[in-house]
Design brief:
By secondary structure, the protein is an alpha/beta fold. It is 41% helix and 19% strand. The strands form three sheets. Strands 1-2-3-4-5-6-7-8 form an eight-stranded parallel β-barrel, surrounded by eight helices. A three-stranded antiparallel beta sheet has the order 9-10-11, with helices on one face. A three-stranded antiparallel beta sheet has the order 12-13-14. Strand 9 and strand 10 form a beta hairpin. Helix 3 packs parallel to helix 4.
Amino acid sequence: MARKLILLKPNYKKQHENYIMENNTVKIFDTTLRDGEQAPGCSMTVREKLRISKALSDLNVDIIEAGFPAASPGDFNAVKTIADENRGPIICGLARCHSEDIEKAYKAIKGADNHRIHVFVATSAIHREYKLKMAKEEIIKSAVNSIAHARELVEDIEFSPEDASRTELSFLAEVVEAAIEAGASTVNIPDTVGYTVPSEFKKLFEYLKKNVKGIDDITLSVHCHDDLGMSVANSLTAARSGARQIECTINGIGERAGNCSLEEVVMAIKTRSEFFNLKTNIKTNRLYPTARLVAGITGMNIPRNKAIVGENAFSHEAGIHQHGMLQHSSTYEIMRPDDVGISQSNLVLGKHSGRHAFRERVTDLGFDIDEFETNRAFNEFKKLADLKKDMYDGDIEAIIMNVDSSSSGPWVLKSMQVTSGTEQSASAKITLIDENAKEKTVKSNASGPIEAAFKALETATNIQLTLKKFDLHSATTGDDAQGEVIITTEFEGRSYRGHGVSVDIVEAGSRAYLEVINRILRRQRSGVKSTSKKKIKKSANII
């Protein structure tokens, strides 16, 4: 089959060659907003995606894969909004090898200063036979035509042969070479189902480097899933074997068991720099705040023993470890907490602290919020300081995570009174204030205090939710620690998530429940119908 070689434009080619010359720098391609969102329960609003994209920009990732524009109007709008507002990293949109997908991806990302279209098609025998029902020649033709189409719209094209790790090496090499000839400047090698192992993956990259013409003129990328717990190891192996882009997500979230964890792979490269002889552009002191932000927005709590950003990552319980740490931290710590943005201070501010001191502490913790959010957070901080004996960094973090200017109204919780006992049913009395400053008080009884509070909220607002999940997490230590509640609910076939913080867990849960109700009411007012989750993502196994 004859294939036409498409040359890169001179200015872009020069930039690309200069980057390749710096061959010890690994680009970090973050796909939290695309692959990460595909994890069950991790769907996000446009505003939430904007907050994360801003955090990723501050983290200094090289590329943000903002979404899959053809998946739904909502996805298209989110990608376009991020592209129009972000002026830092390359903004990338995913597309299947369909002309409609490519056109939508371009329309969504074109507002960014730097943009990329990422096209993919499955190549493994099992996908060819059971999913695509296409012959090898048809797949190559589809890839080449799609890359050529995308090259007519943008200069920066990435191509992925889906399920590459289970594709015959000879055919994989043929597809990759065809993609390079067609104009792809980045070729990604996905371990789509987390099947490969490091030594096997090493041989795959060595084979491609040896057998694919033009492979040294493009950026090789890797995208690994964690089904067997080897996504980070496989990604690092690929980097040692010539890959100069790693695709990953914050906290490793993603489909099934998740993706390669950004914080883990970045800190592995930094901590073992003498072994890997590689570097990234990531500002590692932004890792922890970004991880906390993503966890709060998605409702995917960070496990205590999570590497790099888990609560136990820099904790030492054993006496012999504590003794060593007192002598020198390097005895049992290969990284410093502040390297990843974890504060080691104990007590922080108090109820007499001023706004300026609060703002400085928020900045020191790695959070970047606007003036409106700062004022709201400071007011919440002062209220909390009147209730708690001791204030910690974790308290401030919990407040920041719960501050979102989009969560205001139409209802605001003014007061609540809950009673319960072992030999009586629970009751809740809740007073809400609407946007016209009118109060509404409702009483409700139930078997437990949280159920009673939720029923009262439903009666007051006339919104009936189905509670699917209730997660409670302590923000700090002590009897007066704040409780962070994340709830997952369903309304008219659509999943909604709410977040609430308080020293009273019933109040925290009620605030989370009311946040969901307010979101539904605002959605109804805007004329947007509640619909089920995007069907395209259910029908397609993506990268």
